[in-house]
Fold this sequence. Notes:
Elements: H1 4-14, H2 31-45, E1 49-52, H3 59-74, E2 79-83, H4 90-94, E3 95-97, H5 99-105, E4 112-114, H6 116-123, E5 126-130, H7 137-140, H8 144-149, E6 151-154, E7 158-161, E8 167-172, H9 185-190, E9 193-196, H10 202-211, H11 221-236, E10 241-243, H12 247-265, H13 274-286, E11 291-292, H14 298-310
Parallel strand pairs: 1-8, 1-9, 2-5, 5-8
Antiparallel strand pairs: 3-4, 6-7, 10-11
Helix pairs in contact: 10-12, 11-12, 11-14, 12-13, 13-14
Amino acid sequence: MINKQNFEELFNRHLIKDISQEEIEIVLSGQYGKALELLRDAEATGLFPALVGPPGVGKTILCRYFASLRAKEKKNQSFYWITLDESIKPTHFLGSFDPAITLKKGFVIEAFHPGPLLSAMLEGGTFLANEINRATEYSQNTLLEPLEEASIAIPHLGRIKADNNFFFICAMNPEELSGTHRLSEALKDRIKVWIKLDYPQKATELDIIRINLPEHFVIEESELELIYSIIEETRKNKIDIEIPASIRAGIAMAKLLGRQRALEKEKKISEKDSYFYLSDIAKHVLLGSLKPKPGMKVEDIVESIIARTLGG
C-alpha cells in the first residue's frame, strides 16, 4: 500500500490545479462547434444550459473544454463537477460538517467542508452536474434555489448569495434510456437552453478517432473506414440493440489495431490484413460496448455485425 508521504507527493504532482492549463483535445466541427456557441450564448445571457445525448457522444469533454475557455477569459480557475446517480445526497453538492471538530466546537464554519456546488457558487466558477437525470428528484431539488435565486442555505451557518460569475451546466442521457429519472418540472423550468448531441457525422467521428490515437500508432485511412462501418452498423440495428457503440468503441478499436501495426513494424509479429485483426478486435470491444434489447444475446449480435461488415 502507498505510504502517506508518497501519496501526498504523487497527489500534488498529478493534481489538476488550473482547468485553463489542462490540455483538452477536442474536435469542434459539425454539431460540436454549434453546441459550443450555444454554451457561450447561454453564459452571456445568464441562462443555464443542458446537454442531452446518448452515452459517449462527447458531452462531458465539451463541458470541460468550455470550462477551460471560461477559466482563461475570466481569469478564474474554479471548475467543479460531480457525476450523479441514485446514491447522491444534498451533502454531496453542498458539503458537510467534520464530526470530530463539530463535537469539539459545535456547528462552526471551521468544521464545515464545502462541496463542489457551494465552492463554485462562492468562487464564481463553473459547476457541471453530469448525468443529472440519474439522480433522484430529492437530490435534484437541491439545485432549485441556486438556479432560481442564485443562493443556497447551509444548515447551521446561513444562506449565501452566489458570485455573479457562477455558471451551471448539466449533462444527461435521453430519458428513454434505462437507469434515468425524469427531471422534475420545477428543475426543467430553470434550465432554459437545451442542446442536443447525437452520434456525429462520419467525417467528424473519424477526426475524433484520429486525435485520440497515440502518435506511434499509425493506421491507414481504409482501416479507419472499416472501423467506422462496424460502429455505424451497431447504430442501424435498432431492432436488436438498445444502446449502440459510442465513439469510445471506435477509438478503442483504432488503438488496438494501431498496437498490432506497431508490433508488425518492430518485427515482433508477422503482418496480417485488416480484416483478420478487426474481426478479433471488434468482438472484444463490442461485447462490452453494446446494450442488447431484452431477450437478445450480445454475442450473437456482435457475430452478425462482424459477418456483415468484415465478411468473417
